[in-house]
Amino acid sequence: MRYFIFQIKNSIEDFKRNKTRTLLASLGIMIGVLSVVMLIALGIGLKNYIKGQFENMGTNLIMVMPGSGFESGFNAGAFTSSISLDERDVNSLRRISDATYVVPVFFKSAVIESEGEEEFGYVMGINEEFFEVMNASAEYGSILTKSEVQGRSKNVVLGYSLADKLYSDPSLAVGKTIRFNNQRFKVIGVIEKKGDNELDGSVVMSYRTTYGSINPDKTFWSIYVGVNDEDKIESVKLQAEEALARRYDKDDFSVSEQDELLEVVNQIFNMVNGVLIAIGSISLVVGGIGIMNIMYANVTERTKEIGIRRAIGATRGDIMAQFLTESVLLSGFGGVMGLLVSALIVVLVHPYFPIALNFFAVVLAIGISTLIGVFFGVFPARRASSLTPIEAIRYE
Would the keyword Transmembrane turn up in this protein's UniProt record (predicted)? Predict the structure, then answer.
């Protein structure tokens, strides 16, 4: 233990003598660790965000989408299709006896205006069953009724965060008028806060009201089918596929259970995380090469010091341990700095964008920076330890 502490003290003393060089060497590793950790944090955040979307929905849910959707994984045709879902498909799915509810969902971005304030948000066209699907209730005011949906009412419900941005206090939104797409709508309620969910930033209205300038094609982004009896989910899924297959080719739509979607989301993001780590690791390798070059320069500058130490009894192992310790400390310092900067960025960005750190990212950052120090430090350390005392002392 004393030997280890002695090597660390020696390394720190050398760092103090060469502060600029030390900072430059650590900077490369810091940037590398920062890149890897931020890419992992982004992947984790997006994964948690999408999982949150599904978990906010009710259980026993089947999702119908145009295109092959999530079922085929992550490919070019996953979310593109020659078909669009419409009300004929909704009516067809309603004829499935064990389907408890069928919810068409129209979705688009929009700029929402009210009382001189403008905010970016989303417009969701749904029916009255949507609120049951999303486990959503009104925090203030009321939600849409069946008569309002069928009657193409101009009444709308706001997501909590959108109401907060427009009026500072969400409770003040009820009774106000909002404008978008050159139309006016009356706010009758504010949905309870749902967390990381598009619903929080949306204007929710009758899907029939969107027909016209908002949704001229009268199509839907997806259709949710709910089943009360868990044992009948597979049966309903097969019936939904058969109903849609009468109108479309099987490759033009997807019918997926909630658990299947979550499983595929996990697979996709695990793959994406692996790719992101590989990309970020390139900058770590560059940082490691920088440390190796710095350590070679240190060996050259301190050749006489190495000779004197060898002459008074230091072994090759002692010399190698000294330079290897310096390399690991340099890399470790850069890794810790990269981790701290990453944590600061996550804290600052998280309220506005889905990004998150976990224990895996922290351990990976520390572990990689240590391994970089060992791997790229061992070559200069071996060179230093291979010098003979006489050769080193005579070096000019």
Answer: yes
